[in-house]
Predict the structure.
Amino acid sequence: MTEGSTLDANLSWTPGLPEGWQPLYHEVIHAIAAIDPFAKVVDAKEKFGEMRVYMKEFDEPIFDLIDAATAKSRTLCQMCGEKGVLSRNGGFYATVCPKHSDGFEPAKFSPMRHVRMIIPKPDGEDADQKKEKPE
Ligand SMILES: [Zn+2]
């Protein structure tokens, strides 16, 4: 497999993800490709209101990227990508914004137990964009 076809294969999981997380998925897949062009996704899906990305073989930096993306998915509405909170509707979990929260109430805890602490890195993207496009 070439670098490009691995990237295409990884991006082919996109339609299976909630629409609101598709930009987040693209972001993490491109970040992973920059580290290891041959790292292959074996599954990508919504589970318990968060985005899960499973890789065939990967090392620690990629694990950190996936961890951070999963953590970020718990703050973005899976329907529209706006700011959301992990919510539940009976036993069904989803991350939703106020507009898409009909029937949901905020979940106090994630149903999953996360062993690792996730410390998001500061996001310098906005600052960089402002530098490139002064208005
Ligand atoms: Zn929404």
In short: Residues 77, 79-80, 82, 96-97, 99-100 surround zinc ion (CB under 6 Å). Confidence is low (pLDDT under 50) at residues 124-135.
